[in-house]
Amino acid sequence: MKRAQPDRDDARVAMQPEHARLLADLYILSSAAAQLGGYGLEVPNSQWRALVQQTQAARTAVGTNEGTGANDGRAALGQLITMCEEIIKLYTTGERCAPAIWREVERLGRDAYAYVSAGVTCRREPLSD
């Protein structure tokens, strides 16, 4: 099955530039951890701390308004944040994170990063009074 790619002309895929930066950083950190975890290798504590910090920064910036459309960059970022929060919760409770979950994190990161690599940015809308 072929993945949908973001359309530069589609306003529904809009992503704020600061969200794109957060997504790129979260993608790099989560992918590095997923490469280790997906093969059953231990993720170093320093990498966990960085992942926690970046996930919290992304959640703070995005909040709970993650977007709703299938072709929405905010929705893609929100899904990656939520999955990172879930693996962090497993880690903090001492539970093992299954390789399948790590692979899902890696897939979500790649899918979400497609919005950044495609150069999709937010169209500014007029402020209402």
Automatic annotation (TrEMBL):
The organism's place on the tree of life at top rank: Bacteria
Name of the molecule in the record: Uncharacterized protein
Species, as recorded: Paraburkholderia fynbosensis
